[in-house]
Design brief:
Layout (H helix, E strand, L loop, with lengths): L3 E6 L4 E8 L2 E9 L11 H23 L8 E7 L3 H18 L3 E5 H6 L17 E6 L4 E8 L2 E7 L5 H11 L6 H9 L22 H17 L3 H32 L3 E5 L6 H14 L2 E3 L10 H13 L17
Bound molecules: 5'-O-[(R)-(carboxyoxy)(hydroxy)phosphoryl]adenosine (KG4).
């Protein structure tokens, strides 16, 4: 029998609801919050208020677009964490209330598992999905991890950042350049016009598969600070080259550990996920590396790189099949607890 899951995502500043039937996407509605733009970053209190305004219309619209009735839903999957506590509370409370009202199971999903399993969102029955085990480079605003995925509900973190995430490196360096938030997509655009070999920034020397981006951020800041002393227009005159050189350094750091993990494990199926996996340079680097070595690479559609409920619904589908249900009293968690 088919399984229909309603997914709800509210971990940060996107309110999203999606319906999947046996992982085939029936709807994916996302309400992004513009209210933060003026503040140069997400304001938690404003985010939770906006989630409260958005959650009912977004869920209703997802059910309407899927062409189903509420009574057809088998389970409700929701992001339990990590994320902003106030934002998570809105989605969690709504999911619990609806599950109780419909008398159906509630499934809690780790947001990061959602990113890793986003490759199982099927546009139709024929969508190709990864085989197990696969290695996923999970890169977002809050995390940078190399995850070995043995099965949908069996993941091991091989390495992760010991300080900043890759997305933070993009965003914080962009802020130093006076670019708007989030800086990642802006750097990506500027980098297309720039010379990536023009500037050199510090790269970390960390053992194993772990990442570090705080040294790079400091090195970027000092380079700019020193250059501005000589030429106050330095940033404006070198915007594209700075962006391209920064992007290349971040990609080199990411690929160094990721390719080490690929070689060491011998795994021939790899994937990328999370907001930074939308980056053109990251996508090209992973594609090129894999093409040369006949490794199968799963690069997500850009819609599924940022926060969305489709990935939560799909991750929830697998937990539902394994009967991993959530207690109605379970609170959200703001930090990673995989
Ligand atoms: O996964 P995500 O939407 O949110 C979480 O952190 O959970 O990731 C957001 C991050 C931000 O740091 C943003 O700057 C970055 O993803 N990002 C990009 C690009 N698009 C989004 N970074 C580099 N290039 C992009 N094209």
């Amino acid at each position: 029998m088919s399984v229909i899951i309603l997914g709800i995502e509210s971990s940060c500043d996107d309110t999203s609801a999606a319906v999947v039937k046996d992982c085939v996407l029936m709807s994916n509605v996302i309400a992004s919050q513009q209210v933060h733009e003026a503040f140069g970053g997400v304001v938690p209190e404003l985010a939770s208020r906006a989630h409260q305004q958005n959650i009912v219309p977004v869920v209703s619209e997802a059910i309407r677009q899927a062409g189903i009735k509420k009574e057809n839903i088998n389970a409700i999957a929701f992001t339990r964490g990590p994320g902003l506590p106030g934002s998570l509370h809105v989605g969690t409370s709504f999911a619990k209330g609806l599950a109780l009202a419909l008398d159906i199971p509630l499934v809690d999903v780790n947001h990061l598992h959602g990113h890793v399993l986003a490759h199982f969102i099927k546009e139709d029955e024929n969508t190709e999905v990864p085989t197990f085990p696969y290695l996923c480079l999970l890169i977002s605003g809050g995390n940078s991890q190399i995850v070995k995925v043995n099965a949908p509900n069996d993941m091991e973190i091989m390495g992760q950042t010991i300080d900043d995430a890759a997305g933070e490196a993009f965003d914080k360096c962009a802020k130093v350049m006076g670019l708007p938030y989030p800086g990642g997509p802006v750097i990506d655009k500027l980098a297309a016009e720039g010379d990536a070999t023009r500037f050199k920034f510090a790269k970390p020397h960390i053992q194993g598969y772990d990442y570090s981006f705080s040294g790079l951020k400091t090195s970027f800041l000092y380079t700019l600070r020193d250059a501005i002393k000589e030429n106050p227009n330095f940033i404006e005159e070198n915007k594209a080259d700075l962006a391209a050189s920064l992007q290349k350094t971040i990609i080199d750091v990411l690929m160094d550990k990721f390719t080490k993990a690929i070689k060491d494990t011998g795994i021939k199926t790899i994937a990328i996920g999370g907001g930074v996996s939308a980056n053109s340079g990251v996508r090209a680097a992973v594609e090129q590396y894999c093409q040369r070595r006949r490794i199968k690479a799963f690069i997500p559609k850009r819609t599924f790189t940022t926060d969305n409920a489709a990935m939560i619904a799909v991750a929830g589908h697998f937990r539902y099949l394994d009967k991993q249900f959530c207690d109605i009293a379970a609170p959200p968690f703001s930090r990673v607890t995989i």
